Amino acid sequence: MAKKTECLLSFTISAVETSYESASMRFSPADVEVDVAAKSLLVTGANSGIGKAAAKEIAKRGGTVQMVCRNKERAEEAEEEIMTETGNQNIFLHILDISNPKEIWKFAEKFKNEHKLNVLINNAGCMVNQRELTEDGFEKNFAMNTLGEYWGLSTYILTTALLPLLEKAADRGVITVSSRGMLVQKLSIPDLQSANGTFDGTMVQAQNKRQQVALTEQWAKAHRNIHFSIMCPGWADTPAVSSSMPDFCQKMKNALHAEAQGADTVVWLAVSSEAMKLPSGLFFQDRQPVATHLPLASTYTPPEDEEKLMEVLEEFSQKFKSTSPGT
């Protein structure tokens, strides 16, 4: 496991050293110089880091921003900051623990009755370095990053629950913020919650991100009228990175992207008509589709494994839906 972690960090350090400024030379400014006043976009984890930076850029372009955050105090501060800096008052705050599947179902059902939605941005996530379980018995990384950014369940439940609302909208899309750290992991159906072997938070998160790739590809096949995409923000100087990987952050502090740079591809995918012309289900970095496997890697997933992942997540999600009052 230590070798895999070292390999992952070596790969990501190399990625960090690839200049964002160099990549941005090929960007078309016109792609994001747009008015999205007619659009409603929901951003999870919108009170800091990539989520906050994306929410702010969308607000600057006139979009209605639905901020989904866990910490009420920090969320209110972020909401006020975004309104003040952008002059956009169409900012709505929703307090939700995205690691709680029951609460996600309840939130989604209420949201569908009160709001419209064009774009869902699954940004909230975590990296826990010791194996910890939630109150529902799920490993925390899995719960947050997959289940609803909670074992993939959180991403799965929130997206699945809001699909009917998205299908009613124009220019509809789902964007999931992930990481190319998943390149060192193959989808592991037998051990989705990392219960076996030595626990390594870095590698567990990489497995969660591999799960998100599979989800995105499967959704793109099943829902042809919605544009699904997944992206890597690169290594940005965010609170999440500094708290979960302090040594790495300290070593690379002069090379890390600014938060707005990390959020650039999220914003591009959310507002650009050019992005919507590309096939659904792709993985992006720096506004460009990139491979989800390294050359000659043994990380390719048989279709039946991806289908099994969807079956398992659906089974878990329905259990939480049936126990949620009002759903």
Short description:
By secondary structure, the protein is an alpha/beta fold.
Write the layout of secondary structure elements.
Blueprint: H1 2-16, H2 20-24, E1 40-44, H3 49-60, E2 64-69, H4 72-86, E3 91-95, H5 101-114, E4 119-122, H6 140-145, E5 150-151, H7 153-166, E6 173-177, H8 201-222, E7 227-231, H9 239-244, H10 246-251, H11 259-271, H12 273-276, E8 282-285, E9 288-290, H13 303-322
Parallel strand pairs: 1-2, 1-4, 2-3, 4-6, 6-7, 7-8
Antiparallel strand pairs: 8-9
Helix pairs in contact: 3-4, 3-11, 5-7, 8-13
Word description of this protein:
The chain is built from 13 helices and nine strands. With about 325 residues, it is an alpha/beta fold. α3 crosses α11, α5 runs parallel beside α7 and α8 crosses α13. The protein is globular, with a radius of gyration of 18 Å.
Number of contiguous helices:
13
Assembly state (oligomeric): single chain
β-strand percent reads 5-15%
- Spans of at least 5 consecutive residues whose pLDDT stays below 50 are 126-133, 138-151
Percentage of helical residues? 40-55%
Features:
single chain, 327 residues, alpha/beta
